[in-house]
Design a protein that fits this description.
single chain
Length: 76
């Protein structure tokens, strides 16, 4: 599994080929801050969301609210 930093590095090397997405642990208290930091670093989407949380979980809902501020897609 690649880290977000590795994906951002690949994007810097191949900007026409790599669209950087990030993924954070939504069970961490600082997940919103981490998403915003990844956006500032150049990410353009969120995914893949694979954590075993119900789609109506408040953390999923908040993640979707945050990424919608950036107009990001999300893959599940």
């Amino acid at each position: 599994m690649l880290t977000t930093d590795e994906v951002l590095d690949a994007h810097r090397r191949y900007p026409q080929r790599v669209i950087p997405f990030c993924q954070v642990d939504l069970q961490r208290d600082d997940f919103e801050r981490r998403i915003r930091a990844h956006a500032a670093a150049g990410c353009r989407g969120y995914g893949e969301q694979k954590q075993h949380l119900p789609l109506d979980d408040s953390r999923i809902v908040r993640m979707l609210e945050v990424i919608s501020e950036f107009g990001w897609p999300c893959t599940f």
